[in-house]
Amino acid sequence: GDAKPKDSPAEHADDDDEEVSDPQNTNLSDKVSLYRGDITKLKIDAIVNAANKSLLGGGGVDGCIHRAAGPKLLSACRQLNGCNTGEAKITPGFDLPTKHVIHTVGPIAKGNCDERLKRQLKSCYDSSLKLLETQDLKSIAFPCISTGIYGFPQDDAAEIAVSTIKEWLFEKRAPVDRIIFCVFLESDHKIYKEKMLQHFPID
Ligand code: ADP
């Protein structure tokens, strides 16, 4: 039961004086974890797929997810009529251990990283989180969206991923149990470890 208006601006600043006294707000970093491995193995409410606009499957993590979910996932995706860059759509997980797959389409960056690409990548995280909220799901895992075939620079992408999740957790007061950054490459593991220490310092 969330009675708040959906159109309230991102920097709704009515929580200034509650921050210190609200016990729910003190351990937001406990909700975030870093996992290196195959996202299709996670038994969780939702995993995010770095899909392409067609939503009809592709290489990389998208291919892994479709293989592990079975052909029903492709049938479900056919009903969705594709997806625009920065947006997200949800399906069941079918044969996957996850309950749902949130398909989002990252920008094709080809090694570049301008403001527009950054906005689009941030929007992938925000759109996925919005679905998590509207479907009342409590746990989600993100792969490193756009940083494979789509060529978004890994470090910039990780900064966007971690800062967007942090912003969202603070804003929404963590209405979730767990958010997982699921990295696949050792290079991303290293980058994310550092970003998480910066954004979620242990004191
Ligand atoms: P994009 O097209 O958005 O760049 P890719 O699937 O090519 O998406 O790559 C996104 C990230 O997903 C890369 O870091 C890649 O190493 C990683 N990846 C590939 N397979 C898996 C998997 N099974 N689980 C988690 N991450 C994966």
Mean pLDDT: 89
Spatial arrangement of strands, main beta sheet:
1-6-5-2-4-3
> Which sheet architecture does the biggest sheet show?
6 strands, mixed
How many DSSP H or I helices?
5
Strand content of the residues, in percent?
A: 15-25%
Structural class: alpha/beta
Instruction: Spell the H/E element sequence.
Output: EEHHEEHEHEH
Computed over alpha carbons, the radius of gyration is: 16 Å
Bound small molecules, deduplicated: adenosine-5'-diphosphate
User: CA-to-CA gap between the ends?
Assistant: 33 Å
DSSP E strands, number = 6
Instruction: Give the low-confidence spans.
Output: 1-25
Shape: globular
Residue share in helix: 25-40%
Care to describe what's here?
With about 200 residues, this protein is α/β, with parallel strands linked by helices. Helices cover about 35% and strands about 15% of the residues. The chain contains five helices and six strands. Helix 4 runs parallel beside helix 5. The longest helix is centred in the middle third of the chain and has 20 residues. It is globular, with a radius of gyration of 16 Å. The structure holds adenosine-5'-diphosphate (ADP). Adenosine-5'-diphosphate (ADP) binds next to helix 1. Adenosine-5'-diphosphate binds next to helix 1.
Task: Give the structure's gist in a few sentences.
This is MACRO domain-containing 2. With 203 residues, the chain is an alpha/beta fold.
Q: What labels would you give this structure?
A:
single chain; 203 residues; alpha/beta; 6-stranded mixed β-sheet; 6 strands; globular; disordered N terminus; binds adenosine-5'-diphosphate; MACRO domain-containing 2
